[in-house]
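Example 3.2
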Amino acid sequence: MTNELSPAELAQRLESLESRLAYQEHWLDTLDQAVTQQERRLEKLEQLSALMRERLREQHQALQAGDSQGSFRPEDDIPPHY
């Protein structure tokens, strides 16, 4: 038994390898696009998170400034039915 392949068998193996390579290239392109989209979404979410942290900090500072001045707040008023 010899290990030599006929030209037809070699052509078939080469075609099979080329097909597998094309399939893998397609999936690599698909995965690359998915990673790129996720990176964009992550950047947007990080920006949103930073914005929300800043607004929360501003609200906290405003609340502390209002408490230190002893200003009247509507939520501190007891309703008349109590």
